Structure formats: structure tokens, C-alpha cells
Amino acid sequence: MENEAVQTAAAAVETVSDPNFIQSVAIFMDEGGIFMWIIFAVWCLAVAISIERVKSLFMYDIDGGSLMNMIKKHVLSNEVAQAIQNCSNSNALLPQVMKSGLKRANQSKEQIMDAVEASILEAAPKVEKRMGYLGLIANISTLMGLLGTIYGLIQSFAAVANADPASKAKLLALGISKAMNTTAFGLISAISIMVVHQILSSKGEKILGEIEEYSVKLVDLLGTKKQMVPVKEEKPSTDVAA
Q1: What are the CA-CA distances from residue 66 to residues 71, 203, 214 (Å)?
Q2: Which one in 9, 56, 132, 142 has a CA-CA gap of 20 to 30 Å to 159?
Q3: Where does residue 212 rank: exposed (0-12), middle (13-18), buried (19+ CB within 10 A)?
Q4: Residue 12 neighbours by CB distance under 10 Å
Q5: How far is the C-alpha of 207 from the C-alpha of 60, rounded, in Å?
Q6: Quick check: 233 pLDDT over 60?
Q7: pLDDT at position 8
Q8: Phi, psi (degrees; rounded to nearest 5) at 87
Q9: CA atoms within 13 A on the CB side of 165
């Protein structure tokens, strides 16, 4: 299986590097006119945004269950400072949210919840950042493809109007086939962007879902821990007045 995968990858690289393939792509792009290059430009922008989002989301993600177990262990051992330090050592969003709650471990449950909710409000935009642009670019690619096709058809009909009757059908068919290039490329671009957008959105929803889930568990843990701590009663003074 591994050898087959290597052979498939080698064949793909060989195909892409083939001068005939590169020439075919260049002809395909050129026949579509300026709209092809506009679609290509916005597609490149979507690729750049996607790469940045992939790097950020994987940096923000963390195993929430393992983190919660670590925090629970330290909290129940009265080592809240160590739990805060461990959260500070991570760049992920969940530890930062948990740290805001741990810093108020000695305060009321409501105050802990307020700190956690404020931290969640700060974390959410980081996850959702630039996601909307991908959907917008996918729509732009589709619409630019259709616009390019309409523009190409207008040019084709204008060229056929003054052509020799014997060659009108051939010229019209050739013009229409070229005009369709922009629609095809626009759809290819839009579909690829939409797939990536859905994958990244699912990843972001998972991160936010874990933040909300484990934040509630942290507040419940800290509240329960405070109830478990016995209240020290003052012993009556045994001093005898002189």
C-alpha cells in the first residue's frame, strides 16, 4: 500500500511538471480571458487565509479531557498556583480560559463564572477570525465564472454576426466552449474553498464546544471544592483573667 501511494504521488508530480500539462493549463487560463485571472487571484487569497486558519486552529486546539484531569488533580490537592502555571505554558485557548477561572478560585461561584465568560468572549473571535471571508470568496468565484461566461458569449455572438455563414456554427461553438471555461474554473475554485471552509468551521466549533464544556466543569469543580473545605471554628479562650 505504501509503495502504491508513493508511485501515485510520483505520477502526480510527473504529470504536473510535464511541459504539455503546463501548456494546457496556460491555454485554458488564456482562453477564459481576464475573468480567469480574477478567479485565480481570489482563489490564491482563499488559500492564504486557509493556511493561516489551519495553523491558528491547530495551535488553539488541545486535549480538553487531559487538561481537565490535570487541573482537577491540582485543585483537589490545593495546588491551584501550579494549575495556573501549567495553563500559562500553553498557547491553546482552553487553558487561557481555565486560567481566568483558576485565578478567582477563592472567590464566589458567580465571580468565577463571570471571569470565565469574559475570557470565552475574548477567545471566540480568535477562532472565528476570517472564516466568513472564505464563504464570500467562494461566492465571488462562482459569480465571476458566470460573469465571464456571459461576457464570452456576448463576444462570440458579436463575432459571429459578421462571419461567413458557412463558418458561423463552428465559430459560435468554439466561442461558447471558451466562454464555459470561466464557469468551470469558477465552480472548481468555489467547491474547493467551500470544502476547506466546512472543515475549518467544524474544527472551530469543536474548539469552542470544548471551551464551553470544560469551563462549566471548572466552575462546578471550584464551587464543589470550596464546599468541601471545612470551616475552621474558633476555639474558646482558656485564658483566666487575672
Answers
A1: 9, 18, 11
A2: 142
A3: middle
A4: 10
A5: 8
A6: no
A7: 46
A8: -65, -35
A9: 0
Q: Report pLDDT for 227.
A: 63
* Grid cell 498556583 in the structure block, residue: 81
Task: Note the Cα 228 to chain centre separation in Å.
Answer: 41
Return the closest-CA partner of residue 127 out of 36, 62, 42.
62
Residue from 204, 169, 208, 177 nearest 53 by CA: 204
CA dist 178 and 156 (Å) reads 9
Q: Nearest-5° angle of CA 163, CA 165, CA 169?
A: 85
Residue 107 DSSP class: S
Rounded distance between C-alpha atoms, residue 35 and residue 190, angstroms? 14
Cell (9 digits) for 60 = 488553539
Answer whether 157's CB lies under 8 Å from 195's CB. no
CB 156, CB 148: distance < 8 Å: no
**CA 86 to each of CA 70, 82, 91, 152: distance values in angstroms, whole numbers, following the listed order:** 9, 6, 11, 61
The residue ranking higher by pLDDT, 100 or 156, is 100
